[in-house]
Specification:
The chain is α+β, with helices and mostly antiparallel strands and about 600 residues long. Among the domains are: about 140 residues, TATA-Binding Protein (2-Layer Sandwich), CATH 3.30.310.280; about 180 residues, no CATH class. The chain contains 19 helices and 26 strands. Strands 1, 2, 3, 4, 5 and 6 form a 6-stranded antiparallel β-sheet that branches. Strands 8-17-18-13-12-11 form a 6-stranded antiparallel β-sheet. A 4-stranded mixed β-sheet has the order 16-22-21-19. A hairpin with a 2-residue loop joins strand 1 and strand 2. Helix 1 crosses helix 3 and helix 2 packs antiparallel against helix 3. It is globular, with a radius of gyration of 24 Å.
Length: about 600
């Protein structure tokens, strides 16, 4: 399958000086804004929209910014200046654009250590290299992006909006980025292996057997070819679980960490399957573009990206089909979700779990070494959408092309609706199902921009919500909620129980802080909808839902989205100051650091 037309593959070695400078300037502005937002740096108000940061290194950065929702400073990249004392003793202000220099000068003020700074520098540099390559090579306009399918559009996105170093990918080489990163839009084929049943366990939802998965995912000739490989090795084909492996992972992790299993034929390589896949923004989840109705597949990668090692924990592979079965039961019994909203839950329907035979016996072994082999099959968007429906990630609304035009503006223009009416449709489509599940069942997802998708009609008007990534991201309140019925089990790792204040924080952080905070100013600039109006429309959507469901009044108070202050959870702060880069046995929980003013608290 060729690279999609008009989408050059970013080559990190072919970057112009101007593109490098522009990428740095944009990332510097993002770093200043986000690190101030997370209270890692203090911005002094100098009046008339001006601000200054004084660093312990003796350097100061000045800039202009507008104050957005939650107290966020939206920094103008072109306004940044740097002032440092020269050899002659006088202070000289100069245009500031070097994000790497800023990191080093801010390190002491941030309160981190040299080892963390050096590793974070690597993540920052990797992010800059990709951003600069994108600027050098250009890309489609947002009007052209309207015609792309879900998987192809995913390849045009630019990474996690909350995180500054959002394309760190420690473990990938420049060649790996070109071959496997989503922005390269390079289709890949998957290596398949047979894992002895003494090591591997298959699980599926009630309607899916192991044989059914293989029949759906592999054509008859491929299954025959793989069977012949096992028979030639003197192995019983029925004594093994078959599963795909990412080619990078097979080369860099599986053949190394599982060398003993391969040597003793507990793992037998079968060869490549025929279908082509495109990686999404998470890299490890891929959509089948060769046979789109087949399942998406989520595979572990032993790379560090956006805060964690991108393996798949065994408790996730084990629990995925169980959680999917339970959630589908809730949805199918709820006519409001099924018939009125037509919400789609992209279930994680089957999985294979493989535990390392030696390292699992090591107490407190770092999790990066324990999550190297396994897979999850998920419903594909193509198999669930209507024929005339376009499905796009929630995150795509924030995309801005090289001309400065926002994707959300292109969608609104093509819809023929007034901007405020289009936004009302968006908020109803997105928020009402999320609010319903939150208030009715005490359940929430991790509805960030990649996990949340929107279905659009032929006029690019939002009409329904798609949700995915359930296991380990679905949380339920530990309060008694009769509507939930019998839950899958009582183990926290399969279905985490949390306080209602934490449950509702998932919605606050992922939808409002993590997405609407950025969408509101885009709508103000490009659609003429003032930020205050934007947030009033969001608030009204919540109030209208509450008015229609008075029987849930106690839940509205329990999961209060309109409270004046919300806790601050800083992802960048967690990486640079709290967690740093020490190896851990488990992924850790975030802890709040202060509060933000909530723009939904006032009409």
């Amino acid at each position: 399958m060729p690279t999609p037309q008009n989408h050059p593959v970013p080559d990190l070695s072919e970057v112009t000086p101007a593109a490098w400078r522009e990428a740095n300037q944009q990332l510097l502005a993002k770093a200043v804004g986000e690190w101030c937002f997370e209270d890692m740096l203090k911005a002094v108000d100098t009046g008339e929209g001006g601000y200054r940061i004084d660093l312990d290194s003796g350097t100061s950065y000045a800039f202009r910014a507008t104050v957005g929702a939650f107290g966020w400073l939206r920094v103008d990249p072109r306004s940044l200046t740097r002032t440092a004392t020269s050899m002659l003793g006088n202070s000289i202000a100069e245009p500031a654009w070097d994000a790497q220099q800023f990191l080093l000068e801010a390190a002491s003020t941030l309160g981190t250590d040299p080892s963390t700074v050096a590793t974070y520098f690597t993540e920052l540099s990797a992010t800059l290299a990709v951003d600069a390559a994108r600027i050098t090579h250009g890309g489609e306009t947002v009007a052209e992006l309207l015609d792309l399918g879900h998987s192809e559009l995913e390849c045009r996105m630019t990474g996690h909006n909350l995180l500054v170093a959002n394309k760190g990918r420690i473990g990938f080489s420049a060649t790996d980025v070109r071959r496997y990163a989503p922005e390269s839009a390079q289709p890949l084929t998957l290596q398949w292996v047979a894992v002895h049943r003494g090591l591997a366990e298959f699980r599926g939802t009630s309607e899916l057997s192991e044989e059914a998965i293989l029949a759906r995912e592999l054509d008859e000739s491929t299954r025959a070819r793989f069977t012949a490989v096992l028979e030639a090795a003197g192995a019983d084909p029925q004594g093994y679980v078959w599963m795909p492996v990412h080619p990078w992972q097979w080369d860099h992790a599986v053949q190394i960490l599982h060398a003993a299993d391969i040597a003793q034929q507990r793992i037998i390589p079968l060869g490549e399957s025929q279908d082509a896949y495109l990686p999404g923004q998470s890299i490890r989840t891929m959509a089948n573009v060769g046979t789109p109705d087949r399942y998406d597949v989520k595979l572990p990668l032993k790379i560090l990206n956006t805060l964690v090692w991108r393996g798949i924990p065994p408790h996730c592979t084990m629990g995925a089909p169980v959680v999917t079965q339970w959630l589908r039961g809730l949805v199918e019994r709820d006519p409001f979700l099924t018939d009125t909203c037509r919400t789609v839950f992209l279930g994680e329907v089957a999985s294979v779990t493989v535990r390392h035979p030696y390292l699992t016996k090591l107490p407190d072994a770092p999790y990066q070494h324990l999550e190297t082999l396994g897979c999850i099959w998920r419903d594909s968007v193509t198999a669930r959408k209507d024929a005339d429906e376009r499905v796009r990630t929630f995150a795509s609304l924030l995309h801005v092309d090289h001309t400065g035009d926002a994707f959300v503006a292109a969608l609104v223009r093509s819809s023929g609706l007034e901007p405020q009416e289009w936004l009302r449709r968006l908020f109803d489509t997105l928020l009402v199902p999320i609010l319903h599940v939150l208030y009715r069942y005490g359940v929430t997802f991790n509805p960030h921009g990649q996990n949340t998708l929107l279905g659009y009609d032929e006029n690019n008007v939002p009409v329904r919500l798609y949700l995915k990534d359930f296991v380990d991201d679905v949380c339920v309140s530990f309060t008694d909620v009769p509507e939930r019925g019998a839950e899958p089990d009582g183990h926290d790792h399969v279905l985490p129980r949390k306080h209602p204040s934490i449950i509702k924080q998932h919605v606050m952080d992922q939808v409002f802080v993590g997405h609407f905070r950025y969408l509101a100013p885009l709508c103000a600039e490009q659609l003429g909808v003032p930020e205050k109006t934007f947030w009033s429309l969001v608030r009204q959507t919540i109030l209208d839902f509450q008015k229609r469901n008075p029987e849930l009044a106690e839940r509205f108070a329990e999961y209060d989205l309109l409270t004046p202050e919300i806790p601050r959870y800083g992802l960048n702060r967690d990486r640079i100051v709290v967690t740093r880069y020490g190896d851990r046995a488990l992924r850790h929980a975030l802890y709040p650091n202060g509060t933000h003013p909530n723009p939904l608290a006032e009409g």
